[in-house]
Amino acid sequence: MTQQYPTQPLSTSDAAAGATVVETNVINPTDRVRWPAVIAGLFAALSTLALLGVLGTAIGLSAYDAGDRARNFGIGAGVWGILSALIAFGFGGWLAARAAAARGRNNGLLNGAMVWAVAVPLTAYMLAGGAARVADTATRAAGDAAQAAATDQANSADGQSVLDQAQTASARISGDAQASMSDPQTRERAAETASRGAWATLVALLLALAASALGGYLGARDTHDRDGRRLATA
Predict the structure, then answer these.
(1) 133-to-85, 128, 136, 148, 204 alpha-carbon distances in Å
(2) What is the CA radius of gyration of the chain?
(3) Is residue 115 within 8 Å of 98, Cβ to Cβ?
(4) Which pTM was predicted?
(5) How far is CA 116 from CA 51, 86, 97, 141, 222, in A?
(6) Is residue 93 a contact partner of residue 112, using CB atoms and an 8 Å limit?
(7) What is the full DSSP assignment across 125-165?
(8) What is the pLDDT of residues 38-60, one digit of tens each?
(9) Are the C-beta atoms of 113 and 123 separated by less than 8 Å?
(10) How far, in Å, CA of 10 to CA of 181, rounded?
(11) Strand partners of residue 4
(12) Are 25 and 2 a contacting pair, CB within 8 Å?
C-alpha cells in the first residue's frame, strides 16, 4: 500500500525562485505481524533469559551456605526465575516492536505479544524433547542393568539366591510406594503440591505475556515523521 502526502502550495517567492514540488510515496506493510522482527525479539528474549539464569545460578551458589534451609533457596530461585522472565520477555517485546516496519502502539503491542506466543510452544517442544531423551536414557540404563544381572546370574553359583533377593527388595520397594500413595494424607499433599505448581506456572506465563506486550507497547515507533506528517500504521 502506498500513501501520497499532499504538497503545500508554492508561495510567490518560491515560484519565482523556480522551486519544484516533490511528491513522496511511502510503502507501508499490509500485515501487522512482522515475523522477522518477532523472531529477532524471540532470540533476544531467550538469550537474555539464559544470561540471567546463569547469573542467578552464580549468585545463588556463591551465597549458598550448608546451614541454610533448602526451602529458602528454592523460593529465592523461583523469584529470580520470574524476574528473569519479566526482564527477558520485556526486552524481547521491545526489540520486536522497535524492529518492526509497522508503526503505532497497537502494532507494537501485537508484535511484542507474538514474541511470547512463539516462545511458549517452542519451549514446551524443547522440554518435551529433553524429557523423551531422559526417558530413553533411563530405559537403556535399565536394560543394561538387567543384562548385567542376567550375566552375573549365569556366571555365579549363587545367582538364583541373588536374583531372589533382588526380586524381594524390588517387591518391597513397590509395596512401600503403593502403601504410601494409598494414604489419604499423602495423596492430599501431592495434590496440593501439584496445584500450587500449576497455579504458579499459570501466573508466571501471564506475567511473561504482560511483560512482552508492555515491552512492545513501549518500543513501538512513532506514527509521525520528522516533519510532523502522520504515517500509516497498518
Answers:
(1) 26, 9, 5, 22, 26
(2) 31
(3) no
(4) 0.64
(5) 18, 11, 13, 37, 23
(6) yes
(7) HHHHHHHHHHHHHHHHHHHHHHHHHHHHHHH-TTHHHHHHH
(8) 999 999 999 999 999 999 989 88
(9) no
(10) 88
(11) 25
(12) yes
pLDDT band, residue 210 (cuts 50/70/90): very high
Distance of CA 176 to the CA centre of its chain: 39
Q: How far apart are CA 128 and CA 133, in angstroms?
A: 9
- Contact indicator for 70, 26 with CB cutoff of 8 Å: no
How many CB atoms are closer than 10 A to CB 98?
19
Q: What DSSP assignment string belongs to 171-184?
A: HHHHHHHHHHHHSH
d(CA 153, CA 145): 12
Helices 105-155 and 184-219 cross at an angle (nearest 10°) of 140
